Structures are given as structure tokens and as C-alpha cells.
Amino acid sequence: MSEQKHLLIINLGRGSYEGTTYVLPDETHVSTLIAGLALWKWLETNGQSPASVVFACTGVAWHDRSSLIEEEVGRLGLPGERLAPTIELEMPRTLDAIWGLLPPLEKWIKESAADGGEPPVLHVDLTHAFRAIPLAHTWLALYLQRRGFVTHGVWGYGAFDPNAKELTPYLDLSHLLQLAEWAEAVRAFRDRLDTSAVASLLDPQERSARRAAVAAGSKPPGQLSAVVRAAKAAGEPFRAGLPLEVGLAAREHLGSTTSAAVRDAAAGLGLGHVAPLAEELFQELQRLAVVAVAKSGAKRQLALEEAEIQRQLRVVKAFARVGMVDAALRALRELIVNRVLLAWGSGGASWLERPLRERAERRLAALALKPAPRPLSPEEEDLAVLWRELRSRRNPLAHAGMQGDTVNPGEAKHALETRLLPGFCCLHPHAPVWQLADLPEGPAEKDDDA
């Protein structure tokens, strides 16, 4: 694999440039007239030497400043041979002119990364840009990043103050670009319960803050790290539709962490701005987590009790909420079997054993027969209807729709939300109905083997 490349865009306007010493984020000092050259110098000394550097400006601005730039490049000892032909821009007075910034920018990036390696890291200096160009470059670069052409590097801005000319803070605004990533991650979390994107954003900030705390001689709190680990661990089994694995993974990493402890940990690490999101993530994971995890054989030692039934119901509802209809139907089927086993007093280690579950399934199949094998109570009749419809909705999805009739996922979702889940919730408190007493135990239904 080829080494990842770095690219640098320096914006240039026609304003009057005054000499100053730019103070980079790591306190490096670089004295120059052109802020972008301070960034270039800093990249060179930090192992991120740009393979190509391009000035983006109008033709007039380049004509006025090219000699000055050449002098400054030489004075700073920068590799002038890395300068690419200037990207000439129109003064952006129309939307068409702003869109016109994209093609030459994309062309330069593609030519600079023609070896087919990792997407290059794009650094941009915005200091001397004019009018809408900084905003346009920012969003166009975000677009290019989403397309996989680049990753973001430093987004530099020299905050020059004419009343304090000697030292000028050089700010890295790339952190603001992450707002779009955070917004997308939060949406994925709220809409699909996708914890992976949020965790991937929290993780580097949390690790950086912990390292800083250790370097300062203090012991960093671990609760925020626990939430990140739990989100990563629970995300994959959730997407796979595995209620038990989700709960075990979440609890294993959350331990006895509380919402208040997560909030305090974020504040203690100087990450108070992410505390609301971290708390929300914790609360969702907490709802899906099992009560406790055994040190060994966690799944086989998981007790089937009322709290576990309620937790699995929350998982099924979460599957339904995020549109995982197949997973919700499968999990609801197993939840009904579990409710039968709870009524039978089979809450110990045996409730996951196949012979016992098949026995419960055969009793449910007998209950759903037409005509019924014995007179049914109104609640038993409701359970029979529930089991029949659940089976009819689940089986076409379990067989990937390999049947003559068209499978309508929308109808299945509607049935799940309006009849199946409400039906289970109504029957759940009626303990006698789940006993399935005096029913034969016929052979397991073939469709339920899928």
C-alpha cells in the first residue's frame, strides 16, 4: 500500500498582507506574510509534507502576489517544486461561479492522488480568501470527503489582529467540520439505533482526553470509555437481530455505570459538550442491557425472569422502530416462546435448550390449530390468533420471499406495530394463558424451522 499523501490549498486574495508570527496549535512559531505558508512550513516539520501545494485565487490576485510568494517560499526553505499550477477562480458573484470552484479542485485532487492509494489528506488555509470562497471550499471539501476522494486535515485560519500584530493565533477549524459528521451520526443513532457512528466520533475525543489527564498526573474517569466500548460491542449484534447478544454486550461494558456518572466523566475530561449525546447513548444502551452478566458462560447462565422478558420486548420494539421488520418478527416469536417458558417456571439455565423450546413451540402450534383441540378461553383465542399471524408474517421473510405471492414489508411492519406487539403486551399479564394446559404436543411446524 502506498503512503498516504498530503495536499495543501492556500487561498489568496488581493488584500494588504502584514508580517506577523503565526502561532500554530502546538505552539510552533512561523513568521511570514502569507498565512498559508506558515501552515505549509508546519506540515513540513511535522511529517506531513504536502505532495502538492496549490494557490486558489483570481488571476489578478496571483499576478499581484506571485513574486512575494516566491520570495517567501525561498526564505522559509519550502520545496517550491511542489507548487502546482494555480487554480484560477472567478470572483464568486453568482451561484454558478461558486459551483465553478468544484471542477478544478476535484481535478487537482484526482491528479495528485493518481497512484490509487489511500485518499489524500487535504489541508486548506482560509486566511486570505475572499468573500464566499472559504465557505464554498469548506462545503465542497466535505462533499469530496463524503465521496471518498479526501480525508480532512488542518483547516487553517490566521486570526490576525491589527492591534496585536506581533503574534497571530493560527486556528485549526477542522473540528467544526466534524459537526456534519456528528449530525449524521446522531441521526443514524436516533433513526436506526446505529451506535457505531456515534461511538467512532466519541472514541478519539475520549482517548485524547484520557491521555491528557494521565499526562497531567490524574486518573481519568472510565465511565465515558465504558459507554463507547458498549456502543461498539452492541452495535453489530443489534444490526444482526440478536436480542441476547445485544444485552450481554451492553451490560458487559456498561457494568454499574449510571447516567450521572457518564455526565460527570465527560465534564471531568473536559468534554462537557458531548455529555448530552453520551448520556443519550448510555440510556439507550442501558434499556437494551441485561440485568447482570456472569463471569463465565454468560449466555447459558442468563436467567429468564420478568425483567428479561421486558428487556427483550424493548429490543423487539427497537427493531421495529428502526425498520428491522424481519429481526423484530423473529425476536417476537422467540419472546412468545420465552413467555411460555417463564409461565412454566423454566427460568433457569435450561430455557435456551432446544428440546424445551421445541416443546413450547409444539404447544403453541396446537393452540393455533383450526379447529382448536379443546375449547379456548378468550385470552387463549387471542394468543392463537397472535401466533398464527406472527407465523404468517414471519415465514415469507424467513424464506427471503421465495414464494409466488408478493411479500409486502410495509404491511408486515404495520401488522407488527398495530396488532402483534400490542397483542403480546395485552396478553403478557395473564399468566394462565401462557400455561398452554391440556394441549397436545404435535410435531414442530416445518415453516418454523427456517
Written description of the protein model:
By secondary structure, the chain is an alpha/beta fold. 53% of the residues lie in helices and 9% in strands. It has helices at 35-45, 59-75, 95-99, 102-112, 133-146, 174-192, 195-215, 223-239, 243-254, 259-268, 275-288, 306-321, 325-343, 354-367, 378-398, 409-427; strands at residues 6-11, 20-23, 29-32, 52-57, 87-88, 121-125, 151-158, 167-172. An eight-stranded mixed β-sheet has the order 3-2-8-7-6-1-4-5, with helices on both faces. Strand 2 (20-23) and strand 3 form a beta hairpin. Helix 8 (223-239) packs antiparallel against helix 9 (243-254). The longest helix has 21 residues, at 195-215. The chain is elongated, with a radius of gyration of 31 Å. The model has no long low-confidence stretch (mean pLDDT 87).
Tell me what portion of residues adopts beta-strand conformation. Answer: 5-15%
Order of helices and strands: EEEHEHEHHEHEEHHHHHHHHHHH
Helix content: 40-55%
User: Total number of helical segments?
Assistant: 16
Count the E strands: 8
Question: How far apart are the termini?
Answer: 43 Å
* Structural class computed from helices and strand pairing: alpha/beta
Strand order, largest beta sheet: 3-2-8-7-6-1-4-5
Biggest sheet architecture: 8 strands, mixed
> Regions with pLDDT < 50 over 5+ consecutive residues?
none
**Form type:** elongated
Mean pLDDT: 87
Question: What is the gyration radius calculated from CA atoms?
Answer: 31 Å
